[in-house]
Design a protein that fits this description.
The chain is an alpha+beta fold. The chain is built from four helices and five strands. Strands 4-3-2-1-5 form a five-stranded mixed β-sheet. A hairpin with a 2-residue loop joins strand 1 and strand 2. The chain is rod-shaped, with a radius of gyration of 39 Å.
Length: about 160
Amino acid sequence: MLKIRLSRGGAKKRPYYHIVIADSHAPRDGKFIERVGSYNPMLPKDSATPRIVLKADRIAEWLAKGAQPTDRVARFISQSQDEALAGKVQWVQGNNPKKAEPGKKAQERAAERAQREADRLEAEAAAKAEAAEAAAAAAAAPAEEAPAEEAPAAEAAAEATEEQA
């Protein structure tokens, strides 16, 4: 399939583009069939020399032969004031509202991460509830039982020291 597209030239950080007719499988700056225009994005929009130069008759011929313009070149052609290109290409601005949404794998990872976080928070809440129940049970127990619990511990410590001696 033939494409009417941009081919980059110029120096580093100083782009200059040729509008070319090329096979869609050819590399961007590689082999092309014909050069049909140029685009210099470094020129200001209101400069005396035009930023975009098109060979309208050649582009019209290639469009008639079935060449498809890329989105950017279609925009240039549709904005052209030349009669040979008038109405040949209708450029419509693309709208992709789902562009910023993450892919399936990323959504799966996010759901997995959210589930782990929910499980962790649930476990922390359960641990806090158990600690609160234990504290409430200790506070509800009579004060007499508490020293009784300490006494066997003191006896066990005394027995451990006797065995060591």
